[in-house]
Amino acid sequence: MLIFTCVFLVALLLSTAIDFYLDQRHMRSILTHRGAVPERFADAISLESHQKAADYTMAKMKLGTWSGLYGLGLLLLWTLGGGLDILDQWLRAWQWSPLTTGVVLLLVFSMIGSLLELPFSLYSTFKVEQSFGFNKMTLGLYFSDMLKQALLMMAIGAPLIWVVLWLMQSAGEMWWLWAWAVWTGFSVLMMWAYPTFIAPLFNKFEPMEDGELKTAIEGLLNKCGFESNGLFKMDGSKRSSHGNAYFSGFGKSKRIVFFDTLLEQLSVDETLAVLAHELGHFKRNHIKKRMALMFSMSLAGFAILGWLAEQGWFYAGLGVSQPSHYMLLILFMLAMPVFTFALSPLMSMYSRKHEFEADDYAKEHANAEDLISALVKMYDDNAATLTPDSLYSAWHDSHPPAPVRVAHLERSGTS
User: Which residue in 48, 94, 190, 397 is deepest, having the highest Cβ count within 10 Å?
Assistant: First the structure.
């Protein structure tokens, strides 16, 4: 067995074992505290809602465990099991050009992957989410979304793949730098295009109606010096009863979007507090910082790709007999999560730092008690657990756990 194969298997075993250990801790914490609502939330959340959140989290965790084991098996079958090599040899038999073969193989691999993951996706949506009253999708809408996503992959993904493979073939030793520049440009383009052209393919966005809420929001935006391309209400209830709000786009294309489900849950003051938190991300330059981090990490990734392209052991160690540019991309995408697993807690810590900073900004421009009240309602309505395991949360959660976040706001005081 090749040395790299052993390294890959050890890293895979280690990451899987850590994930399993963290999952067990998390589920044990939830079950241990299922019988009583944490004292800080006892006045706002009923025992019935608390137990629903515990059961919902447990159902998702159990499904995630089986899905993870299934994904582990697929990864081994694609790589060391020879699945990619078989697919590659079959497509090579058609005697297309390397560019055409590469584009087709990457698209076929993506589609096969989506189909193989379909049973778990369907179970999650129509069993878990439906059982707890969250799913609003029909089978027709579910498969309509799948078809739209596949067509977008063909229309947008295929040209991008072709350009990257062409650069790998034609741009010399520094192809990886040119490919990174193309990827970065494409990412920025998608940030601009998504809210205007892509998101409306899946949801309906209506300008927020005139009234008390819109007037209050516009006042907050003026106070914070924030310009956007409009306030929109999205028909999130078309697919789920979960509520949310977000910014999308950048520059003049920035939009503020509220799920209709969120607007039904919160009062005007609570909605303003949530918006102030989101504005905090913008005003504290979190979006720019995250973009800079993303582009820096992708640059490092492309540099590693440039080095791996000439390493025969990388292909052979992952079950591929004939090195190629397109196979390099697939193997890298499959192997990278195994070796970057240890970065998860660092990325989570960085994200939670931004959440605390956004909460601090919200307290300066809204009332901290309103934000706490909004968060508690959102935890309740979304059946988010109030008793996560601290180590699991530190590793996986991009947002601080409910007790920690509320305690931070209470220590900070109100505006």
Answer: 397
Q: Which string of DSSP letters, residue by residue, matches 292-305?
A: HHHHHHHHHHHHHH
Among 270, 282, 284, which Cα is nearest to 368's? Answer: 270
Spatial distance between the Cα atoms of 95 and 98, rounded to a whole number of angstroms: 9
CB atoms within 10 A of CB 168: 23
> For 188, how many CA atoms within 13 A lie in the half-sphere containing its CB?
10
Lowest mean pLDDT among 182-186, 290-294, 409-413: 409-413
Q: What is the pLDDT of residues 33-76, one digit of tens each?
A: 999 999 999 999 999 999 999 999 999 999 999 999 999 999 99
Give percent helix, percent strand, percent coil of the chain, each to the nearest 5.
75, 5, 20
The model's confidence at residue 244, banded by pLDDT at 50, 70 and 90, is confident
CB–CB of 228/252 below 8 Å?
no
Which helix H or strand E contains 206, and what residues bound it?
A: strand 205-207
